[in-house]
Automatic annotation (TrEMBL):
<dbReference type="InterPro" id="IPR005843">
    <property type="entry name" value="A-D-PHexomutase_C"/>
</dbReference>
<keyword id="KW-0413">Isomerase</keyword>
<dbReference type="InterPro" id="IPR005841">
    <property type="entry name" value="Alpha-D-phosphohexomutase_SF"/>
</dbReference>
<feature type="domain" description="Alpha-D-phosphohexomutase alpha/beta/alpha">
    <location>
        <begin position="6"/>
        <end position="133"/>
    </location>
</feature>
<dbReference type="InterPro" id="IPR036900">
    <property type="entry name" value="A-D-PHexomutase_C_sf"/>
</dbReference>
<dbReference type="InterPro" id="IPR005846">
    <property type="entry name" value="A-D-PHexomutase_a/b/a-III"/>
</dbReference>
<feature type="domain" description="Alpha-D-phosphohexomutase C-terminal">
    <location>
        <begin position="374"/>
        <end position="447"/>
    </location>
</feature>
<keyword id="KW-0460">Magnesium</keyword>
<dbReference type="InterPro" id="IPR016055">
    <property type="entry name" value="A-D-PHexomutase_a/b/a-I/II/III"/>
</dbReference>
<keyword id="KW-0479">Metal-binding</keyword>
<feature type="domain" description="Alpha-D-phosphohexomutase alpha/beta/alpha">
    <location>
        <begin position="263"/>
        <end position="369"/>
    </location>
</feature>
<keyword id="KW-0597">Phosphoprotein</keyword>
<feature type="domain" description="Alpha-D-phosphohexomutase alpha/beta/alpha">
    <location>
        <begin position="157"/>
        <end position="255"/>
    </location>
</feature>
<dbReference type="Pfam" id="PF02878">
    <property type="entry name" value="PGM_PMM_I"/>
</dbReference>
<dbReference type="Pfam" id="PF00408">
    <property type="entry name" value="PGM_PMM_IV"/>
</dbReference>
<dbReference type="Pfam" id="PF02879">
    <property type="entry name" value="PGM_PMM_II"/>
</dbReference>
<protein>
    <submittedName>
        <fullName>Phosphomannomutase/phosphoglucomutase</fullName>
    </submittedName>
</protein>
Length: 452
């Protein structure tokens, strides 16, 4: 019996192939997904990893065995799969392990309209059925086997995104894009086709072994090549996509990274210009600048826990037009409340091209504070270390606490959040302040306690 608790995470399936799962299990996952969703039709796509086509087709075969018709859209980005789920109004499954190393693969699942599937919304039942059938075999069914057909959605996906952001009147821009040998190499040429952009491609060859660098732009070492190319070519902007191209990081004309919080604030301002007075979601470790900009633009900021399931829940509850996270996930009501780094990138390109100044000047108004970035510490006793930090700051004048997600401690000119990892023995620290010296002082004080 496979131990599926090791690969079925809170929001997706992810593990090493074939050690932890294989096409046999993928077929059972497909049958379970069809059963739990009760869908007559589903859509399935996959990234460029060597194991993805086989796993994806096995999943489709399993779903079809339950009487469900399957549309295979083949190679796609995760947000292209969400587009298909939304456009066709049917559940979907994307085979990808995002930025994980080559030997990993996984499944991101959604219900019709790109609504997320997580442990509380069907993933637990899918795991339980898959475990049961792995032991006993698939039960017989009276249903006529479903069909498996292929469909290309890339052109429709690109046209839909371009319909949400008007780039026709912008000035010509030189754009360096690092696809990291991931799915951005598949989607960017079609999305950018016909736009007034001079594209400088980097690592567009689809290669799930990631020969140049990990497709994880959250790690600064994976941005070095892009930063150098932006400076070398005199480009206006650099864009870095992760492996499944649902996250996008931005580099300015100097080769400096732009904070995802600044991008969140910029896109929020643009969305609020289209939809005055609406709500914008931000997680609790985005910058103070995000709710400030939202209020200045006449919107209502709503603060949430970290994680796409919480963002999407709050977007559904509040009807928010947009949501952003520090990890460069950007969610849009116009995109079925799903995350799409590509749409965020188009917004940034439009904002840059509609004015004459450099990107660094444009984003300066949205990047108002000094920040530490996320700092990880390996600890044996996460709860104990967090309690020690809380005790150290208790009783200080003007200091407030909240525990919406981990421990957040805030004063007039600084705040920090200390969160435990759900999957590793880590505490994650983020600090922001009005100046760099204060960031360093608070950071060093908290780390001294955490690492004691």
């Amino acid at each position: 019996m496979p131990d599926l608790t090791q690969i079925v995470k809170a929001y997706d399936v992810r593990g090493v192939v074939p050690d932890q799962w294989d096409e046999t299990l993928a077929e059972l996952f497909g049958a379970a997904f069809a059963t739990v969703t009760g869908a007559r039709q589903i859509v399935v796509g996959h990234d460029m990893r060597p194991s993805s086509p086989g796993l994806s087709h096995a999943f489709a075969t399993g779903a079809a065995s339950r009487g469900t018709d399957v549309i295979e859209i083949g190679l796609c980005s995760t947000d292209q799969l969400y587009f298909a789920s939304g456009k066709f109004d049917m559940p979907g499954a994307m085979f990808t392990a995002s930025h994980n190393p080559a030997q990993y693969n996984g499944i991101k699942m959604c219900r019709a309209g790109a609504a997320p599937v997580g442990q509380d919304t069907g993933l637990t039942e899918i795991r339980q059925l898959t475990e049961e059938w792995a032991e006993s075999g698939l039960p017989a069914t009276d249903a006529t086997a479903g069909t498996v057909t292929k469909r290309d959605t890339l052109g429709d996906y690109a046209a839909y995104l371009r319909g949400l952001v008007d780039l026709t009147a912008i000035r010509s821009l030189k754009v360096v894009v690092d696809a990291g040998n991931g799915m951005g190499g598949h989607t960017v040429p079609t999305v950018f086709d016909g736009l007034p952009l001079e594209l400088v491609p980097m690592y567009f060859e689809l290669d799930g072994t990631f020969p140049n660098h990990e497709a994880n732009p959250l790690d600064p070492k994976n941005l070095v090549d892009l930063q150098a190319k932006v400076r070398e070519t005199g480009a206006d902007i650099g864009l870095a996509f992760d492996g499944d191209a649902d996250r996008c990081f931005v580099i300015d004309e100097r080769g400096e990274p732009v904070s995802p919080s600044a991008i969140t604030a910029l896109v929020a301002a643009r969305e609020l210009a289209k939809h005055p007075g609406e709500t914008v979601i931000h997680n609790l470790i985005t910058s103070w600048s995000v709710p400030e900009v939202v209020k200045e633009c006449g919107g209502t900021p709503v603060r949430t826990r970290v994680g796409h399931s919480f963002i999407k829940q709050e977007m559904a509850r509040t009807g928010a037009i947009f949501g952003g996270e520090h990890s460069a996930h950007y969610y849009f009501r116009d995109f079925w409340k799903a995350d799409t780094g590509m749409l965020a990138a188009l917004h940034v390109l439009a904002a840059l091209g509609e004015q004459d100044g450099p990107l660094s000047g444009l984003v300066a108004q949205y990047d108002r504070y000094a920040a530490s970035g996320e700092i990880n510490s390996t600890v044996d006793d996460q709860a104990g270390r967090a309690a020690a930090v809380r005790e150290a700051f208790t009783g200080r004048e003007g200091v407030d606490f909240d525990e919406l997600d981990g421990l957040t401690v805030a004063a007039a000119d600084w705040w920090f959040n200390l969160r435990p990892s759900n999957t590793e023995p880590l505490l994650r620290l983020n600090v922001e302040a009005r100046d760099q010296a204060t960031v360093e002082r608070v950071r060093d004080e908290v780390l001294a306690i955490v690492r004691a």
